[in-house]
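Hi support team,

I'm opening this ticket because the web form for multi-chain structure prediction keeps timing out on my end. I have pasted the exact lines I submitted so you can reproduce it. The total is 832 residues across three entries, so I didn't expect it to be a heavy job. Is there a limit I'm missing, or should I split the entries? Thanks in advance, R.K.
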Amino acid sequence: MSILEVKNIKYKYNKFDESSKYALDDISFSIDEKDFVAIIGESGSGKSTLISHLNGLYKAYSGEILFKGVNIYSNDFNLTDLRFKCGIVFQYPEYQLFSETVIDDVAFGAMKKGLSKDEAYKKSVEVLKLLGIEHLKDEAPFNLSGGEKRKVAFAGVFVMDPDILIFDEPDAGLDPVSKDQFYELIKSLNNKFGTTIIYITHNLDDVIEYANKVIVLNEGKIVKTGKPFEILTDKEVMTKANLEMPYAVSIYYEVLKKGYEIDKTKLKFDELLNSLINLK
Amino acid sequence: MQNIEIKNLIVNFDILNSENNVVSKKRAIDGVNLSINEGEFVCILGRNGSGKSTLAKCLNALVLPSEGDVIINGMNTKDETKTLDIRKNIGMAFQNPDNQIVASIVEEDIAFGMENLCIDSETMDKRIDEALDSLGIKELRFSVTSKLSGGQKQKVSIAGILAMKSKIIVLDEPTSMIDKNGRKDLLDRVKKLNKEDNITIILISHYIDEISYADRVVVLDKGKIVMDNTPREIVLHKSELENAGITLPYIPNLATRLKEHGKNLKGNEFTVGELCQFLK
Amino acid sequence: MIKDITFGQYYKKDSVIHSLDPRVKLVATLVFLVSLFISTNIFAYILATVFLVSAIVLCKVPFSFIISGLKSLLILLLISIVFNIFLTPGEKVFVLGPISVTREGIIIAAKMAIRLIYLVIGSSILTLTTTPSKLTDGLEKGLGFLNIFKVPVAEIALMMSIALRFIPILIEEVDKIMKAQTSRGADFDKGNLVEKAKSLVPLLVPLFVSAFRRANDLAYAMESRCYSSSVHRTKLRPLTYKRIDYITYLILLVFIVLIFITRYIKIDMIVL
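Hello R.K., no limit was hit. The queue was backed up. Here is the completed structure from your submission:
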């Protein structure tokens, strides 16, 4: 069942300027429960604008967004409630942290959601435990390292028990080891709790590794949506979106060029390795 | 001619408590010996907190040694009378492109360093042209700096260094806040400066993918140099890298795994073409 | 959100006004502001309008862009109009229960509104056509004589230009922080004054933290580029007056003299 359905939304930053282009132009797609969706496209293609619509931070000029079948723009729809169910973790954790201790910060969203102080703190400790940073709970957020801050910011959203977790470039500025740990973490949340994941990224090799659906944007329009291997091996789509092919796909084409047969649907690192070992 | 000579460098930072008393010392750099020659392209690699940014700041006297010496073209950074001369010789671009641009217009920002050196306005005019030209951004001369992309901002910072006629450029994680296309474009330009104008480049990075641009890679961990070799040699030492918190880039990683499975590869291939050579 | 604020941002264009020496523009703005406050009758307002309209036309910045800065002032404008209309004693033209509108009230309110609007448009033309660094160069050179009194004019000017450069960045940052906090259930418009003030904490703390970090980074970057407050600096574009600047000074002189003259025109028939 689709948890989120976006229908023909249009958005413009400067509504007074007739000549300005739409930042989002007739965007439609649907996302099912437990999906792991990557939104890709070059800088300025509308990715961040798009995710800001998904929890009602921005309101589209036309079109509608259905959350579990209900139009979020209808009058009696509770947008604050939507923000708890559709948690967005933004790119810079510094923008979210403001309390004296980590635990206070994490509990903020839970209390806003209506939990009592005790419940909120209990829940926050659980989330910190889950992310493996319980030992930081009494630290001042500003003294933490970049990776730790990011986890705290993430905990502050995850504590609200969202059905959908949305990330804006979660891997930007992370070193490769922390990046892999992060993806493994959200993958496990996706498996264990069935949390739907939507994320913006520039790292297409990781898209192959983790996502099950890809949305490609270019100049505010959707170029194509589909399964990672379909999209990323589609030369026409990649050129149109001005994206460079990930390594796995380049290797796939190089292997084809040399006259070998190779399975297009198996491009994850281990799968590709296997295919290459067993090439005939 | 020796450009940079670092001898037994130790840097300690004071850890202060809330009353501003020193409670303990943190050792950021722990006995580094390193010499870098004119025209080299050196990548200093290390995970977050390995001390690489501190090392960079030691090079132009932003951070002074607790013990040991840093000598740039024969000038010791401890000698305060030489500080300005050292900074004239060695330019530095930082991680956050926004936080290093002083002026609102590109040409004014490029002029900032030259203005400090009391260069006359005709010479400045000429040098701005040359600097913009060698980075391929001539058309940006009169642009508003806050409207530029991250990659363009970094190029403007580098242009400002070139205009000061510095022969050494230190880039402190210049790509961590710009997207993939911008990253490649920037590093291609930097490589060109190194090859064509014989500018010494010191690239501080945590993206191991970027080592392929360098002639020499220095791996830093816990304030110590743990590896110092060519990129081709470095990637053959997977476990040593992993101890320093660094994972192999995609292609060398795949090559190494294929080699383990008996394929005819060295494990230090960097491009798709090189990797697929084993297919004949 | 607050990203819409365009007031005071440089608008790149090739025009006579853009090319004027910043000192001339500073003086012109000052003259215009003074003229607004010594204007007493319709002739003075007509003169000021002609002056402003020619500046708007000559600067080639789209009119809609210039007035978009007024949006943020709308409330202030409305308040001053309402107060003046209802609270000025005088000849009643309209009575509604205890409230009465007077002829004098309408005139004062209209004058107030015109002054405020002209003031904002006039000063935005200055900042729209002059880059922050030109502006501070102008101030630096124009106020250079203060050096005699040991006022560090050059440092203050540099500080100002850096502050101006970071305004758009900080505005964008506030926008991002608000989005992040709203996504966690923060509400910036709900509740009474105390609650509202409290709700600003999640906004202001990250803003200050980030501003301090930026300041720290910038200090490193400036030092790396040989900045030192004790050293004399040259200028990429040293300010020199050109013909057009002298002409403009002349026009300004004529304008302000004319405004003064209007004060002595007695016109009882056409007081609005």
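A quick check on our side: The mean pLDDT of chain B is 91. Let us know if the file doesn't open in your viewer.
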